[in-house]
Specification:
The complex is a heterodimer of chains A (about 160) and B (about 250). Chain A is mainly alpha-helical. Chain A is built from two helices and no strands. In chain B, strands 1-2 form a two-stranded antiparallel sheet. Classes of the chains: A mainly alpha (about 160), B mainly alpha (about 250).
């Protein structure tokens, strides 16, 4: 005993049994649950990755729709502005035309007025001339004209007529 | 120099290497504790430190198996291989731990168990420094090889003994026997020699063990390395032998 380190005995049996017991215990209590957890975690991560990918695609979709809508809205706004500009230009032209017409009308009526005023003035002058003529004739008759007084009278008359015009 | 005495337990006319068995059970208890700490707060979310370590080991062995064989065939083996690598590693490490019992068992001696004789000397003994332990593990390996070979290929498994011609049956038989033998003796030799050298370093002349501090430290570090390598080698070879037996390509 002691010298030779290689001695077989029933320790082999005891060790085999002990080791198999350890294998059974650990497989049941440690490796099994542990590997199950690891698989679970892998599945979790996989599903999370898929979910994240889905959500990313959805976000992309929403972004695209949003951009499309923005583009549309901008286009519509552009159209509205263009329309408004056109309408206002038309209106302005209309207003301008109307005012031109108005001015023309006013001018015409003013001309008519002026014409009428002139006619009136002329006829008034004519009437006054007639009145004056009557007045002069009256004066002439009333004052018994001499030659000298006659010339003076004529001159006065002429001057009166000139003032009136 | 005191001669190392083999402590034996007797049961009927059977004998057991008491020191080896006690150390085997100590290693098993350590593994169980280690694994308990790992699976205590088991979660599929963010794992704790110990769970991380265990998962690292599982991943390590799993990749080992999937490198060597069909992962479908290898899956039922994972539990065995994981336990194997842990057991061999822990066993190899136990022999490097100093004996912290301080002869306590001389006062609490149980006559049958010879605990005082088991826990004497400067350090504990690796179960793998006993050929019985390594032989048991090698025996289990070869049993697994043959039984899985039969399970996956039926009686066709034995066909490879006579390939390429029946003359080769002898060589195949030697191969079959040498596989567990090399497994057992390689592990045993590495660990046993390591412990012998550790004891020799402890016996360096001088004031007790102080002169041996530096060489013992270096040798302990190297022994940790060897212990890790040997546990890896044992597991890899077991995987390789099994994959040879179950692979369907020849």
């Amino acid at each position: 005993m002691g010298g030779n380190p290689i001695q077989f005995d029933y320790t082999v049996v005891a060790t085999v049994l002990s080791f198999l017991l350890l294998v059974w215990l650990l497989s049941k209590k440690a490796w099994g649950p542990l590997m199950k957890m690891m698989d679970e975690r892998r599945d979790n991560i996989e599903s999370m990755l898929t979910k994240a990918e889905n959500e990313r695609q959805q976000a992309e979709q929403i972004k695209r729709e949003y951009q499309e809508e923005m583009r549309k809205a901008r286009q519509e706004a552009q159209e509205v502005i263009a329309k408004a500009t056109k309408v206002s230009e038309e209106r302005a032209a209309e207003i301008l035309a109307e005012s031109h017409e108005e001015a023309e009308k006013i001018k015409k009526s003013a001309l008519v007025d002026i014409e009428r005023e002139r006619d009136r003035a002329i006829s008034e002058v004519k009437a006054q001339v007639a009145d004056l003529s009557v007045l002069v004739a009256e004066k002439i008759i009333r004052q018994k004209l001499d030659m000298k007084g006659q010339g003076k009278l004529i001159e006065q008359f002429i001057q009166e007529v000139g003032d009136m015009q | 120099m005191e001669k190392e005495e083999l402590v034996l337990w007797h049961l009927g006319n059977m004998t057991f290497h008491a020191k080896t068995l006690i150390m085997t059970w100590t290693a098993m208890a350590a593994i169980l504790l280690f694994c308990y700490l790992g699976v205590r707060h088991l979660t599929s979310g963010k794992p704790g430190k110990m769970q991380n370590v265990l998962e690292w080991i599982v991943d390590f062995v799993r990749s080992l198996v999937s490198d060597n064989m069909d992962s479908e065939k290898g899956r039922p083996l994972l539990g065995y291989l994981l336990t194997l690598i842990m057991f061999v590693f822990f066993s190899n490490m136990i022999g490097l731990i100093p004996n912290f019992t301080f002869n306590l068992f001389e006062h609490f001696d149980i006559e049958f168990a010879h605990l005082n004789k088991i826990f004497e000397g400067p350090s504990l003994q690796s179960p793998t420094a006993d050929i019985n332990t390594t032989a048991s593990l090698a025996l289990l390996t070869i049993i697994l090889v043959v039984s899985l070979g039969i399970k996956h290929k039926g009686l066709h498994y034995f066909h490879h003994f006579v390939e390429p011609s029946p003359v080769f049956v002898l060589i195949h038989a030697i191969d079959m026997i040498s596989k567990p033998m090399t497994l057992a003796f390689r592990l045993f030799g590495n660990i046993f020699a390591g412990e012998i050298l550790l004891k020799v370093i402890m016996m360096l002349p001088g004031i007790w063990v102080l002169p041996g501090v530096l060489p013992a430290t270096i040798w302990l570090a190297f022994s940790i390395f060897i212990g890790a390598i040997q546990s890896y080698v044992f597991t890899v070879l077991t995987t390789a032998y099994i994959s040879q037996a179950v692979s369907s390509d020849h």
